């Protein structure tokens, strides 16, 4: 759940970090940052560009990529890479965490699971690996794609009935 209060607190904290590094924050970048933080949908860079473009028609997609790079440098954004589609971003929870992904519409949702830290500790203990971090994705058909599929099946009818 992304509340307005959470968005403002998080944007302010990130802005402070950027300024502390002596980096510039243009109004365009600030708007990109706010769009990233306020989206619960794990947007792609293109989603963000299309959201911000009406406010800054002269802005180029490079501004979105540069802002994402700054956030990556600060460790304030989680980048989700996919083999056959664009990277998606989570600027709300920058630590690796599990997601549920719809195979039809590509929607990505956060998933609260039990003891993630315990699982990481178990993996480290059993394998001797250091700096273990999870990449945990579950795939399925989201509720709205399921209803769309059912509606389609009803509309096309059953042959011979
Ligand atoms: Zn997430």
How would you describe what is shown here?
By secondary structure, this protein is mostly helical. The chain has two domains: 94 residues, Winged helix-like DNA-binding domain superfamily/Winged helix DNA-binding domain (Arc Repressor Mutant, subunit A); 67 residues, Dna Ligase, domain 1. It contains six helices and five strands. The protein has a three-stranded mixed beta sheet with strand order 4-3-5, with no helix packed on it. A hairpin with a 7-residue loop joins strand 1 and strand 2. Helix 1 packs across helix 2 and helix 2 packs across helix 4. The structure holds zinc ion. The site of zinc ion has 6 residues, from loops.
| Widest sheet, order of strands | 4-3-5
State the CATH architecture of the largest domain: Orthogonal Bundle
Spatial extent as radius of gyration: 19 Å
**Main beta-sheet annotation:** 3 strands, mixed
Question: Mean pLDDT score, rounded?
Answer: 91
- Structural class determined from secondary elements: mainly alpha
The count of DSSP E runs of length 2 or more, i.e. the number of strands, is 5
- The CATH superfamily of the largest domain is Winged helix-like DNA-binding domain superfamily/Winged helix DNA-binding domain
List the total number of helices.
6
Count up the domains.
2
In the CATH hierarchy, the third-tier topology of the largest domain is known as Arc Repressor Mutant, subunit A
User: What compounds sit in this structure?
Assistant: zinc ion
Quote the beta fraction: 5-15%
- End-to-end Cα distance: 45 Å
Helix content: 40-55%
Give the topology string: H per helix, E per strand: HHHHEEEEHEH
């Amino acid at each position: 759940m992304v509340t307005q209060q959470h968005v403002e607190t998080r944007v302010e904290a990130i802005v402070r970090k950027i300024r502390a590094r002596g980096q510039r924050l243009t109004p365009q970048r600030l708007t990109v940052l706010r769009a990233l933080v306020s989206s619960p949908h794990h947007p792609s860079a293109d989603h963000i560009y299309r959201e911000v473009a009406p406010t800054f028609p002269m802005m180029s997609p490079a501004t979105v990529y540069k802002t994402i790079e700054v956030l990556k440098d600060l460790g304030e954004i989680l980048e989700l890479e996919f083999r056959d589609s664009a990277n998606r971003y989570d600027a709300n929870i920058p630590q690796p965490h599990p997601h549920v992904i719809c195979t039809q519409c590509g929607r990505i949702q956060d998933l609260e699971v039990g003891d993630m830290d315990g699982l990481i500790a178990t993996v480290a203990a059993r394998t001797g690996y250091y700096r273990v971090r999870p990449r945990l994705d579950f795939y399925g058909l989201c509720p709205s794609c399921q209803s769309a599929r059912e509606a389609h099946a009803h509309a096309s009818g059953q042959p011979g009935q």
